[in-house]
Specification:
- The chain is of the alpha+beta class.
- It has two domains: 2-74 and 255-321 and 329-333, FAD/NAD(P)-binding domain; 77-250, Succinate dehydrogenase/fumarate reductase flavoprotein, catalytic domain (Flavocytochrome C3, Chain A, domain 1, Alpha-Beta Complex), CATH 3.90.700.
- The chain is built from ten helices and 15 strands.
- Strands 6, 7, 8, 9, 10 and 11 form a six-stranded antiparallel sheet that branches.
- A hairpin with a 5-residue loop joins strand 13 and strand 14 (273-279).
- Helix 7 crosses helix 8.
- It is elongated.
- The model is unreliable at 326-335 (pLDDT under 50).
- The structure holds flavin-adenine dinucleotide.
- Residues 20-23, 47-49, 51-52, 55, 94, 252-253, 281-282, 295-300, 302 line the site of flavin-adenine dinucleotide (FAD).
Length: 335
């Protein structure tokens, strides 16, 4: 039984049902159950469709399917910034690439670096969650010098010649003439932030980051600036004014989900397929086990297992043709 435009509609599926409702990124109960920072009472911000509330998972569980919580991470984490809009609403901006640019670093709420900022968004948020343990919120700050923000932009802030003023006025972006001034603006101890930047700059001028190894991986360098030498990801934060914007945890989709087998069939707790029931996309628990191994980590498996499910259903139909009346052979029988 489906509900469409307020009407209840009965649909007969002759060969199989594929659950593909996009996982549970907007299911607040499931977030509390599986997101470590939400369990700690902290915020989470997802730009995924608001409709994705885990309906597929719920329906699978109702007929004996299993919500697989054994994955290392519940979702594909991504750092977000919150963009104030003129109409009073807030946009959610994913930070994929800016973190890896030369002249940009990330610091914890204590004003200390805590990760290789050029690593994947999924890795950075895990480090942010760890660095925010015991703090009133899960968050960190992206810090850039003037040259970097004008050359590359930062989050929703576009590069020169687009103006910085609107972002400074609505509070999205903070600015300080000196690092210590900036620290005061963002509620971080000025001496600590100044020491962090000083320490980073000492080796950054030679393109090195001995503390976290920015630019040491092909993934890092790909997101950096190929024209910046010797390290596409590393430059000192040299001249003010300096800028900061806050990053908070978000996701691109959930990783945990319905347990399936190699045919995309939903399986019960003892591993037996539930006849005729399939799951694909983020409704299915990610075959990547909760890790980000590279680009396409959700779309790739989504496409693949949608195709696998379709093939399995078609193969099954060929093996056992349905014994149905002419009326039931209509594509969808709705009452
Ligand atoms: C900004 C951004 C960038 C991304 N970049 C990448 C990338 O580069 N590579 C990558 O692999 N992935 C990326 N992703 C993730 C990827 O887009 C998603 O993981 C993917 O779209 C999920 O596909 P899906 O079919 O499971 O869900 P969706 O595409 O969300 O589709 C689910 C659909 O089901 C509908 N629905 C939900 N509940 C019901 C219901 N009860 N009844 C009827 N319909 C329902 C929803 O409205 C939605 O239309 C990105 C995501 C975002 C937000």
């Amino acid at each position: 039984m489906l509900e469409r435009d307020g009407q209840r509609v009965s649909v007969k599926a002759r060969h199989g049902v594929v659950l593909a409702s996009g996982g549970f990124p907007h299911n607040l109960e499931r977030r509390k159950e599986t997101y470590p920072h939400v369990k700690a009472g902290h915020g989470h911000f997802s730009p995924t469709p608001q409709t994705n509330v885990g309906d597929g998972t719920r329906m699978a569980e109702e007929v004996g399917g299993v919500f697989d919580k054994t994955l290392s991470n519940a979702a594909a984490w991504t750092p977000m910034s919150l963009v104030p809009r003129k109409d009073g609403t807030t946009g959610i901006m994913p930070h994929f690439i800016d973190r890896a640019k030369p002249g940009v670093i990330a610091v914890s709420l204590d004003g200390k670096r805590f990760a290789n900022e050029a690593n994947s968004y999924h890795d950075l948020v895990q480090a942010m969650i760890a660095a925010s343990k015991g703090k009133p919120e899960t968050a960190c700050w992206l810090i850039a010098d003037h040259a970097a923000i004008r050359h590359y932009g930062l989050g929703f802030v576009k590069p020169f010649p687009m103006p910085l003023g609107p972002h400074l006025r609505n509070g999205y972006l903070k600015r300080g003439k000196m690092i210590e001034d900036l620290a005061k603006q963002i509620g971080v101890d000025p001496a600590t932030l100044a020491a962090t930047v000083r320490q980073y700059n000492e080796t950054a001028q030679y393109g090195r980051d001995p503390e976290f190894g920015r630019g040491s991986k092909a993934y890092n360098r790909y997101q950096g600036d190929a024209l910046h030498t010797p390290n596409p990801c590393v430059a000192p934060l040299a001249n003010g004014p300096f800028y900061a914007l806050k990053l908070v945890p978000g996701d691109l989709g959930s990783f945990m989900g319905i347990r399936t087998n190699e045919h995309a069939q939903v399986v019960s707790r003892d591993g037996d397929p539930i006849p005729g029931l399939y799951a694909a996309g983020n409704d299915a628990a990610s075959i990547m086990g909760g890790e980000y191994n590279g680009a396409g980590i959700t779309l790739g498996p989504g496409l693949t297992f949608g195709y696998v499910a379709g093939n399995h259903i078609a193969d099954h139909v060929q093996a056992t043709p349905p014994k149905a009346s002419a009326a039931a052979r209509e594509p969808l029988a709705m009452h």
